[in-house]
Amino acid sequence: MPALPLSLNDVCGLACEPSLLPRVRMAIAVIAQEVFAEPPDTPGYPARWNLSKTVLSPTEAQAAQMMVGFVASPPMLAAAAEAAAAGATGSVAVAAAISDDAILNAIRIGWNAVAGVSPASAQPVT
What we know:
Number of helices: 7
């Protein structure tokens, strides 16, 4: 497994950053809508759809729980490391430097893991 681009303390700080939470809540709602529009034969669809149904209007507590998984995802870690490399210091500055597109991408990619879809079952059957 590759080394983390940030320390666990930095990742934890970002996952607990209150200024990032509202943006993550909105991104969760956006991605939930995308999942609802997926065809039922999408790999992992039942679990993906169920997560969407559960979090379409995520409460702050739900979003905070999900944020840990999304912040620890490779796309979010990469965005946070990029922000830190550009000079952002501290979780507030790093969170502010992460683009909305990076947050949406991290949630799209992390949706299966948070939904409990195993990587093997997410592969299309050929």
